[in-house]
Specification:
single chain, 516 residues, alpha/beta, Rossmann fold, 2 domains, six-stranded mixed sheet, six-stranded parallel sheet, 19 helices, 18% strand, globular
Length: 516
């Protein structure tokens, strides 16, 4: 491999959802750019490297766009994109049976194991004809682009949807690529994984161990991955704290804490539309202190216990009656999954009970707004006195980082010890167990009554931590590690191919044979 190929690698991002969605518009297509941090990070990465994003076609119009381009790679707003088309029944099994809820619930440890899940024939059908098939199709799409490449290739599969990509891709292209998955959600210890039948569980683990390294949000997640591999793969898996050796391959378990787009979020917080949203919120909140939560509606976010803790706060500390409001901005998530619909109903019922018990003439203790409005969320984060982030399990929780960046009231962060953000922000937050309703109520009271000087000191420290770690650095660190490993591998390969190296290897082999 030439020095030129090493300095101009191809970076392939693979994810279930891509950076763009498409809508038919006349004879062409209207492009809608995603707002997530991955898209922003990729834009920065594309300034340094040749980047290709491979993602699922999510809608009929996405599929039409792909077919219009004959399934070939196209550049869209500066980003090269290839969409992978799936059969509807395959995607249903892959996404709504295996990825969500099975793997998601395992990794967030949400299953009520005496009752659920039950692995049935339908589950196995979803595994074989859905999850495995979709992952194989991703690998085939990537291989079609990279198999003849004369450059270094770094493949970065994203999250639990694509755990089988390393296995299928390695079978197609061998060792010519660096494969480095990143797991955005928590990785629990070995006990959580006993829910999966051994044939599923071991297949997933063995696939990930065909990668060069696996990225995680926290050191705890990385350590749990190593222990899970050691526990279930037996004598063939030799674990260190940050790596697993398996069948001759040394696979790193590396920590890359994800962050936010600091510059973009600061720009959005100053926009006129944000200030308009803030004005609307202030009309209903008035001069009361605000306890804010911004979450997707899902059991792992622990919305229900947050409501219960707020009720406990009002019961024990009646001095807050009429003077504080819980503002909950809830984004619908996976409403096609029964557990999520039921959970939203429980949240609304608890809020209704609190309002029925404590509402005054002009004061309503809880206000819930359901909908996906990011500018409204930013506006609310600017005005909180207390930000409640109490998940049962969270890979990172970017709301905690977004909030402390844009808040301008020296607001206090009340943070679960099971949020990934705990490891970066915990020193300057009020830490709670997500199961401790009483303790969470006490933390909220402490935050509402905290002296101004302490609030200011905590807020400044949190703001500093977040501004020093941008999402661009998160992606760049992964790519830099992969490039160093690839360059090292290429250097070793080049050295071993010299005449001197071959003569030395032959002499060593002969010596070994005579000794035998």
């Amino acid at each position: 491999m030439s020095p030129e190929s090493q300095s101009n690698p191809l970076i392939v991002i693979a994810s279930n959802r891509g950076p763009f969605s498409f809508k038919k518009h006349g004879r062409g297509f209207q492009v809608e750019r995603g707002a997530g941090g991955l898209v922003t990070a990729l834009g920065a990465l594309a300034e340094r490297h040749d980047v290709l994003w491979v993602a699922s076609a999510m809608s009929d119009d996405d599929r039409a766009w792909s077919q219009h381009n004959q399934g070939q790679v196209q550049k869209v707003e500066g980003i090269r994109l290839k969409l992978v088309e799936h059969q509807p029944e395959e995607y249903e099994g892959y996404y709504n049976e295996i990825s969500n809820p099975l793997l998601w619930f395992i990794q967030h440890q949400l299953w009520d194991t005496p009752r659920t899940p039950s692995i049935t024939a339908d589950t196995w059908q979803a595994w074989d004809a859905g999850y495995l098939r979709v992952n194989q199709r991703f690998a085939e799409a990537i291989a079609a682009v990279v198999k003849d490449s004369q450059r270094q290739v770094i493949v970065l599969p994203q999250d639990y949807h694509l755990y089988m990509v390393p296995h299928y891709l390695r079978a197609l292209v061998g060792e010519q690529v660096q494969i480095q998955p990143f797991v955005h959600i928590p990785w629990p210890g070995p006990d959580a994984w006993r829910i999966l039948p051994p044939a599923m569980r071991d297949t997933l683990l063995e696939s990930l161990l065909e990668a060069n390294r696996v990225g995680f949000q926290t050191e705890k997640d990385a350590f749990n991955f190593v222990q899970t591999c050691r526990f279930y793969l037996g004598a063939h898996a030799f674990g260190r704290r940050n790596a697993v050796e398996y069948h001759g391959r040394d696979v790193g378990a590396v920590t890359y804490p994800i962050s936010i787009d600091v510059e973009k979020l600061q720009q959005l917080s100053g926009m006129q539309v944000t200030q308009l949203e803030r004005s609307h919120l202030h009309t209903s909140v008035g001069d009361r202190q605000v306890i804010l939560r911004v979450d997707r509606v899902e059991p792992s976010k622990n919305n229900l216990r947050g409501m219960q803790a707020y009720r406990a706060l009002l019961e024990k500390y009646p001095e807050h009656l009429g003077k504080v409001q819980l503002l909950a901005l809830l984004v619908p998530s996976r409403m096609e999954v029964g557990e999520y619909r039921d959970y939203l109903g429980e949240i609304m019922a608890e809020a209704g009970t609190i309002n029925a018990q404590y509402s005054g003439t002009v004061w309503e203790p809880v206000r819930i707004i359901v909908g996906d409005n990011y500018m409204r969320a930013i506006a609310a984060m600017q005005m909180y006195d207390v930000l409640l982030v109490n998940p049962l399990a969270d890979g990172m929780n970017l709301v905690a980082k977004e909030g402390v960046l844009v808040n301008n009231k020296d607001g206090v962060l009340v943070l679960s010890e099971y949020a990934g953000a705990f490891f970066e922000l915990g020193e300057h937050a009020l830490i709670v167990s997500p199961f401790d309703v009483y303790g969470t109520a006490e933390a909220m009271h402490q935050a509402l009554t905290m002296p101004a000087a302490e609030r200011k000191q905590r807020a400044a420290a949190l703001h500093s931590i977040v501004t020093q770690a941008d999402v661009r650095e998160w992606f760049a660190a992964q790519v830099d590690d992969a490039l160093r490993a690839a360059n090292s591998q290429a250097s070793k390969s080049s050295t071993s191919s010299t005449p001197e190296a071959r003569q030395s290897a032959a002499a060593s082999s002969a010596s070994g044979a005579s000794g035998a």
